Amino acid sequence: MTVNCTLSVSVLSGKGGVGKTNLSLNLSFALHQMGFKTLLMDCDLGLANLDVLLGIAPKDNLQNVLLGETPVSDVLYSVAAGFDVLPAASGVPELSEMKADARALLLSRLEPLLGGYDYVFMDIGAGISEMVQAFAAMTAVRLIVITPEPTSLTDSYAMIKVLHNRHHLRDFLILVNQATSAGEAKRAFEKLAGACRHFLHLEPVLLGHVRQDKKMPEAVRRQMPLLRYAPGSHAAEDIQKMAEALQRSRLAMADYLADRKILRDAPE
Ligand SMILES: Nc1ncnc2c1ncn2[C@@H]1O[C@H](COP(=O)(O)OP(=O)(O)O)[C@@H](O)[C@H]1O
Ligand SMILES: [Mg+2]
Q1: Which end of the chain, C or N, has fewer beta carbons within 10 A?
Q2: Residue 55 Cα, ligand 1 centroid: separation in angstroms?
Q3: How high is the pLDDT of residue 2?
């Protein structure tokens, strides 16, 4: 696999608390265990909490990179060989409203680093702020996390609609989290896909589902990735399958990825 074939993935949701951070962390971890070099960036600049899930207290973070105080290589936290995390900081309101010039600066600082990875994940805050839209438009694929709850479905539809109407994005991978069964996940996906098909004329793709699993909150309390804490759990099994599905997508997209910048800034 050439270094040009880095797959960038933004992890999004309309509604908060659906599992974005835990799924980004564990998907990254699964891909790392499969032998892929993986970078996970905490891009939830309002409520950053990847560091908490990992039980780490980074000295520097994405904000220091942006302010030019620290080189990006010094901010990376290595969870394991070949699995790096770029932490963010919570409660910095100015940064959650990052303007176009600041984004361009951040991208230029990240750029030299990205080609060294097979996967670059961006864990993005919930909702459809300008900032969320800008991050979502940067990546090669968008992974929308939904749950079977009706509010999650309407909020994720609203998010897809905005990204489609304003940024002309059409490719969305859907991950149904906290499903009680494959059937329930499929029904939730079909509702969302039906609305997207009917009103937006686009066809989201179901990447997979992750079952509701009490091991997940336990792993959070232990501040460990679920795949390390309970690798044999239902949710861990589901996440592993999803990592394999994502790798198949990456291979299928190789030509497209080779021709595109790993992260690209959307025009205003
Ligand atoms: N598959 C699951 N089964 C059970 N609990 C889950 C699952 N996925 C996420 N959770 C719980 O949901 C909560 C929110 O997850 P989090 O990843 O922080 O969401 P977000 O980043 O979308 O706000 C966490 O406390 C986590 O333990
Ligand atoms: Mg989160």
Answers
A1: C
A2: 16
A3: 47
Does residue 11 sit in helix, strand or coil? strand
Residue 1 CA, ligand 2 centroid: distance in Å: 31
- Closest approach atom of ligand 1 to CA 219: 27
Tokens for 38? 């993986």
CA angle 157, 213, 142 (to 5 degrees): 30
Q: 66, 92 in Cβ contact below 8 A?
A: no
Phi, psi for 146 (deg, rounded to 5):
-125, 165
Question: 3-state DSSP call for residue 106?
Answer: helix
**Atom 12 (ligand 1) nearest CA:** 19
**What pLDDT is stored for residue 4 in this prediction?**
56
Name which residue sits closest to atom 6 of ligand 1, judged by CA: 216
- Does 177 sit in the ligand 1 pocket, CB within 6 Å? yes
Per-residue pLDDT for 1 more than 50? no
Average pLDDT over residues 42-58: 89
DSSP assignment letter at 200? I
Ligand nearest to the CA of 18: 1
pLDDT tens per residue, range 241-256: 999 999 999 999 999 9
Return the structure tokens found at 12: 């999004």
- Cα–Cα distance for residue pair 168/230, rounded to 1 Å: 40
CA-23 nearest atom, ligand 1: 17
Mean pLDDT of all residues in the chain?
A: 92
What architecture is domain 3-259? Answer: 3-Layer(aba) Sandwich (3.40)
44 Cα to the center of ligand 2, angstroms: 7
